[in-house]
Amino acid sequence: MRIVIAEDLALLREGLIRIFQANGFEVVDAVDNGPSLIRALTTHRPDVAVVDVRLPPTFTDEGLRAVIDVRKRIPGLPVVVLSQYVEQLYARELMSDRAGAVGYLLKDRVMAVGQFVAGVRQVAAGSTVMDPDVVGALLTHRSADPLLLRLTPREHEVLSLMAEGRSNAAIAGRMFVSEKTVSKHSYNIFAKLGLEPSEDDNRRILAVLAYLEG
């Protein structure tokens, strides 16, 4: 699996290179700034990219803006944002193309290398993987929306777990309920949000995230 890494801190960048190489990835490029990231993604068209939000030259949202720009040229390019910050505006824009293959993880909450690598593989395979704090920030942004206010507390919890990329079985285990109960909650959520029900987990997550970003 071919990967591009964008991280301006040299020690962390080298650490990511070693982690991915040790787990069977081919690191085709590792860059430390926004313009180089754009060139690397358009030149190599990797299977997945792991990108920090704040890169030179602006140290603001250079990494996110770079991947948003590239995904307009290469729709659905799998991207995992690995950052210390939740940039709500660009996080929503990144998810708004409904192309999937997006992850947003917070550096200080990545507790296990194996889990992190598995998340990157999920995104490379076309799934969506979100840190719960990122989901919470997006939900808070939309918390006053009349449609979200129609959800029960349990439906709100299911929605948050779906947006993290969890399957019905995983949600059931987390909430200590049956999969049938989760399916019922999911159906009600989609009905209240005006979204077409779907048994496809990835399309379901994308629909929810697309709604939340709007």
Describe this structure in words.
With 214 residues, the chain is of the alpha/beta class. It is built from eleven helices and six strands. It has a six-stranded parallel beta sheet, with helices on both faces. Strand 3, helix 3 and strand 4 form a beta-alpha-beta unit. The longest helix has 15 residues. The radius of gyration is 17 Å and the shape is globular. This is Response regulator. Pfam families: GerE, Response_reg.
Q: Could you write a compact summary of the structure shown?
A:
The chain has helices spanning 10-22, 34-44, 62-73, 88-95, 113-124, 132-141, 146-149, 153-163, 168-175, 179-193, 201-213, and strands at 2-6, 26-31, 48-51, 79-83, 102-106, 128-130. The chain has 214 residues and is of the alpha/beta class. Pfam families: GerE (PF00196), Response_reg (PF00072).
